[in-house]
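Subject: Predicted fold for AEC family transporter, 323 residues

User T.R. writes:
Posting the sequence so we have a shared reference for the thread.
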Amino acid sequence: MFMIVAPIFMVIFIGYGFGHLRPDDQSSDKLINNYVLYVALPALLFLAIAKADISELNQSGFIVATLAGIAAVYIAGTLIAKIMGFGMPQSAILSMGASYGTTGYMGVPILISVYGESAALPAAIATILHNIPTIMAVIVTYDILSNRNVGDKASVSKSVLNAIKTTVTNPLTVAVIAGLVFVFLGIPVPDFLTSFASFLGGAAGPTALFALGLGLARLNIRKHANREALKLVVPMVILKLVIQPAITFAIAYYLFGMQKTDTIWPIAAIVMAAQPIGAGVYVFSNKYGFKQEVISLSIIISLLIALITIPVILSLFPVLGAE
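User M.O. replies:
I've generated the structure tokens; pasting them so everyone works from the same file.
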């Protein structure tokens, strides 16, 4: 299994090496990331959803297992943050670190590379399930609790609307919604659109992984690694890489019995839950000015550990399980 995923991680390392060779060329980093976020990944997710049969979307076990894993570690992250002396809204950033993974940039390419095109649909849905709840929770928490008029209903409504706007206008969400329109209205995807989206989406995996490596090259682990930072990093990494996939696995297999379905869906739920901490957490920590150095360190450490844990998790499931 390691040899199957090795090329995926090699692309990340190439991006990392390129970032170190061209340390001053950060404008190109933004262009590559924008291409992935606004063009390649949306094309891939749109096509995966739009070409699906409506019956394939009836995956209650997958949805519940995914959301339960996210909710459990988010709440656990909040409690741990409180024990360490961080109340709301600051604890929301640490909770996001414990529950928000690199699903789009890393999870999608891994699933499709290992299990083929049959993994595209569950990967697309999982990406949205992992993005929307966590992002909305952080935005609403900060907007409401940072507002002096906490009890003001207008402020609460405005915060919720702001969170909805942020998530709904995300390019990945837009792509999935567009795909769902095709599915629910029974609109066949034209051949030219299929070819166009396939051509763009084909670049999503390697480009996203390369961009991920570039981003890591810009983070300085030596600068931020210290005992105080690690006190926050270690719980986040354990919750993200161990507890979240374990909870997702338990609910998918023991509550819903998804191991009996012999499909890619339970595998996708667990693999996506096991992704390392996503760069989006740093975006929000930077936006709200809270523990940016800790989040940077947690992203790097979780990715390095994931290079071991993800192949181990994948080895537990047969490659033919997707067929």
